[in-house]
Amino acid sequence: MGLFDFFLRRPDFEEGLERWRAAPGAILLDVRTPEEYRAGHVPGAVNLPLDRLHEQELPTDQPIFAYCLSGARSAQACAWLKRQGHEAVNLGGIGGYRGVLETNG
Fold first, then answer.
1. Domains defined for the chain, CATH in brackets
2. CB count in 10 Å sphere of residue 67
3. What pLDDT sits at residue 11?
4. What are the helix (H) ranges across 1-105?
5. Listing from the earlier edge strand, what are the strands of the sheet with 27-30?
6. C-beta of residue 45 within 8 angstroms of C-beta of residue 27
7. pLDDT digits (tens, 9 = 90+) for 8-39
8. Residue 91 phi, psi (nearest 5)
9. Residue-level pLDDT at 5
10. What is the mean pLDDT of residues 58-79?
């Protein structure tokens, strides 16, 4: 693997979900809009839109796994969370999810 492979490799959504499931107390954060979340989200995900992220106090002792539609908003969310002292992992876009979506919420 070359240096640039690291930057070009998109996060593997399913691999990230396995890490989330294996981490006790970890938070799965959907940073899309409430409308996008209601249309279909990963079971167990909490909706906290990117533009409201700063309004919610999240525990710093629990890892946070974030996703959005394409991976761009979740990348921004993770960068901000890391600056606040959180362990944050960008799962990328929900298009990489192969499971059944929940539509409640």
1. 13-42+50-94 (3.40.250.10)
2. 31
3. 56
4. 3-8, 13-22, 34-39, 72-83
5. 46-47, 27-30, 64-68, 88-93
6. no
7. 555 589 999 999 999 999 999 999 999 999 99
8. -80, -15
9. 47
10. 96
What is the pLDDT, as a whole number, of residue 9?
Answer: 53
Alpha-carbon distances of 30 from 1, 4, 5, 35, rounded to whole Å: 30, 28, 26, 12
The rounded distance, in Å, linking the Cα atoms of 47 and 62 is: 17
Catalytic residues: 68
Q: Which two tokens stand for residue 12?
A: 């593997």
Strand partners of residue 41:
102
What distance in Å separates the CA atoms of residue 78 and residue 81, rounded to the nearest whole number? 5
**pLDDT at position 105:** 64
Judge whether 63 and 26 are in contact, CB under 8 Å.
yes
In order, the DSSP letters of 15-32 are: HHHHHHHHSTT-EEEE-S
